Amino acid sequence: MSDLETKMNTNALKLKPQDIFLFNARANQTPGVINMTVGEPDFLTPEHIRNATSQAILHEGMHYTIPEGKPELTQAIAAFLNKKYNLHYDPQTQIVTTIGVTESVFTTLTAILNPGDEVILPTPCFTIYEPDILLNQATPVYLNTSQTDFRVDPAALQKLLQQHPKTKAIILNYPNNPTGVTYNRQELTALAQVLKQFEIFVLSDEIYSELSFAGQHVSFAELLPEQTILMNGLSKSHAMTGWRVGYVCGPQNVMQHLLHVHELVTTSLPEAMQDAAIDALTKGQDDPQAMKAEYQRRRDYLQQQLEELGITTSRPQGAFYMFMKLPAQVNQDDVVVANELLEQEQLALLPGSFFGLGGSGYLRISYAASMEKIKLAVTKLADYLQKVGVN
């Protein structure tokens, strides 16, 4: 029998399992583990959303919808974005609902990239962007932000764009995973002034927009709508990770082609999930506020405790992650340290190097966990540091 594996898409053959998923699976097999790796809200989806979904399942029957999503849903998305972020999208032609932002990223990159294109990727960053770029036969161009407080520096961006004329797009993610860093209006305006000089797409992943601690979130789509493809969803804001509701918005002449790619990925979101999203966007616009306040309380506690242990962080301004710099006295191989913490302390934190250039020597801790778990994590971390001669 012939080896059909050798005849597969060569770019698919190069894909590797996601390190964060492998590490998380190993952590969950560790007895007594305190797992702080998962970027998932520890809150229940608000009750009114769950009730609305149950009623829809019982009384409506679940059917296919048009691929871009039920008109009631795209209208709700448009109204939500207008009220919250001063964005103006036509619900009929400029919005496509997706199976989470994960699909938004894949569908968008598939729709815009040609072989040989380049995509600027500020790092450290979430782990799906790079393989999605490579799978589409394009090349990531890394912009290491670790020397600029994990923010994209406009001058560095200008220089990189001039050096890479094949650039098709840049991916921005803020509030950022893994660092928790975000941008204010002045900082975003400076980036927009650079990007408007180049005929490229700006893919703005704003999935944590409702969990910004640094004042009102400013969408890049407000500043540069003609170039921006906005990606967002309900996973983080409404504790709806398992419901898999995302959406992507952009200029009409771009979105009509992106929709065709989306149609090949999935016929449509499950109708029950769409009904849940409609309820969340129309009746639950303030749902994220209580969760955000609790995340901020956890952040403040965790940062204070880490500072007392001699661990520095870039103060998170959103999301629910803290990027911890390993103390100088500790082995700077973050993968080794993460493995030792798991094996010796039953504490699971993700190595910063999993998130690309600029992540080495860091660990990511998620505070989307109860205060009890956070306190236990701090105790275990302190014990480890004492064992290796710190403090």
TrEMBL record:
<keyword id="KW-0808">Transferase</keyword>
<comment type="similarity">
    <text>Belongs to the class-I pyridoxal-phosphate-dependent aminotransferase family.</text>
</comment>
<keyword id="KW-0663">Pyridoxal phosphate</keyword>
<dbReference type="InterPro" id="IPR015421">
    <property type="entry name" value="PyrdxlP-dep_Trfase_major"/>
</dbReference>
<protein>
    <recommendedName>
        <fullName>Aminotransferase</fullName>
        <ecNumber>2.6.1.-</ecNumber>
    </recommendedName>
</protein>
<dbReference type="InterPro" id="IPR015424">
    <property type="entry name" value="PyrdxlP-dep_Trfase"/>
</dbReference>
<dbReference type="InterPro" id="IPR015422">
    <property type="entry name" value="PyrdxlP-dep_Trfase_small"/>
</dbReference>
<dbReference type="InterPro" id="IPR004839">
    <property type="entry name" value="Aminotransferase_I/II_large"/>
</dbReference>
<dbReference type="GO" id="GO:0008483">
    <property type="term" value="F:transaminase activity"/>
</dbReference>
<feature type="domain" description="Aminotransferase class I/classII large">
    <location>
        <begin position="32"/>
        <end position="379"/>
    </location>
</feature>
<keyword id="KW-0032">Aminotransferase</keyword>
<dbReference type="InterPro" id="IPR050596">
    <property type="entry name" value="AspAT/PAT-like"/>
</dbReference>
<dbReference type="Pfam" id="PF00155">
    <property type="entry name" value="Aminotran_1_2"/>
</dbReference>
<dbReference type="InterPro" id="IPR004838">
    <property type="entry name" value="NHTrfase_class1_PyrdxlP-BS"/>
</dbReference>
